[in-house]
Each structure stands twice: as structure tokens, then as C-alpha cells.
Amino acid sequence: MMPKVRRRNSVLSIGKLLLLTGVLFVIFLFSTVVSMRLVVRAKELAVPALVGTDLEEATRLLKTANLRLALTGKRHDPKMPKGAIVYQLPGAGVRIKANREVQVLVSLGKQQDPVPKLVGETERVALHLARQSGYKLGDISRVSLPELESEQVINQFPAPSTEEITGLEIDILVARKQSKRYLMVDVAGQSLHRVLMFFEEEGFKVGKIQYIRHAKARRGVVVRQFPEPGHALEEDDSIHLEVAR
Predict the structure, then answer these.
(1) Which CATH number fits domain 47-107: 1.20.1070.10, 3.30.70.141, 3.40.50.12780, 3.30.10.20?
(2) 110-123 confidence digits (pLDDT tens)
(3) Measured in whole angstroms, how far is the alpha carbon of residue 101 from the centre of its chain?
(4) pLDDT tens digits for 38-52?
(5) Where are the beta strands (DSSP E) in the chain?
(6) What is the Cα–Cα distance from 122 to 186, expressed in whole angstroms?
(7) pLDDT at position 1 over 50
(8) Torsion angles phi and psi, residue 158, rounded to 5
(9) Averaged over 7-34, what is the pLDDT?
């Protein structure tokens, strides 16, 4: 019986040794992972708070933190003085790697001139008025209205006299008189003189006239036209002709 007891004790000892070895290995792996994370974390830097500072101070703070400043734009802000940083990305306290850029927006201060009234003006006049007040035109949308006699601005954003805005662009909606539409007639085979008289009477605009050699057509006859017959044509469109010579 004694040899069996000794053999069983020996097996138990080996099992305990393997279990202990496994536990120690797991602890080793856990410690290694934690250590690696701490090393990586140690290489990351906390972004300083820049909002409210000027560019010189922000640059100094970032340089001390081994980071770089990137100026991405400027905007009017009624709550921040001119030259102060109004926005930063990443935000304060976020940890990033060394030598990375922190993007900032700088305040232009409160907008001094209210938004000019552009409604009722032509697009060209609206552009001039916007520039005079320190603005520029942003998105320009267009719509056709048959009752209008001439092109004009019918809506704008921001509205006239607005003072507290965050940008320099004014979006406008421009309406234009809807032009008449016709179907292009077939003038091939007609003399150029007769075609020109017809177009003049009907108010069509003749564009380029090109003279080409054509074996089957007599001299001065229209052999080709652009747009082609049946094509939708507006009154401002030009008609181009090829004439036999």
C-alpha cells in the first residue's frame, strides 16, 4: 500500500506545481500588458486649455507640452475679444501623442457692421453691397419666376440688420424671369438669307455660321443646324448653322 500512497502524493505535487506555474504565468502576462499600457500612456500628453488665450500664449502652452498649433480659421464671436481662441480640437485634457497638432479657431470679435439688405437687388449689386459691409456671398440658389421683369434677390440668410452672426457669408436666393421655350424648326435646305430673315422676325439669336464644301447642296443653302429640329430652345439660346459654299 505504501508505494501507491507515495505515487498519489507525487502526482498531487506535480499538479500543484503545474497549477502554481500557470497562475504565475497569468500574473506575468497581466503585469506585462499593464506595464505596456502604462508605457504607452506615459508617452501621451494632456492637451492644455487654449480657449480664451491668444495665439502667442496658446503656442507657448503647446510648445511646453511638446505639441503644435494649427490655425484652421477665424470667425466673429460676440462673446470673445478679437484674437482670442474660441475653439480647439482636441479639447482640453484629452491625451494625444507628442508633436501632434491642436487645431484652433480665432475670434474676429463682434461683427461691427450689420448684415446689409440684399433683397430686391440684382446679384451683381448684392455682391457689391456685401463686400462694402465686410461680407461675401455664400450659397447662391436660383429659381425661375415668370412674373419677374428682371433678375433679383428674393431672400437672404442671415436676414438684414442681423448683428450677432458667426460667419462672413450671406446666402441668397436669386429669382430670374422665366424665358420662353420653343421647338427648333427645320431650316435645312433653305437659303441662308431666308433663314436669317425668319430668325430675326421671330426673335431668335443666330450664333456661329460656318461655310463648308457640300457636293449635293447649292451655294448659300443651310445644310446643318444646331440645335437639331425638334430640340427644346429658349429665347436666349444661340442657333449655329452650316452653309454650303
Answers:
(1) 3.30.10.20
(2) 776 788 999 999 99
(3) 22
(4) 444 447 889 999 999
(5) 44-46, 68-75, 85-89, 95-97, 101-107, 136-145, 152-157, 169-177, 181-183, 205-212, 222-226, 232-234, 238-244
(6) 37
(7) no
(8) -65, 165
(9) 61
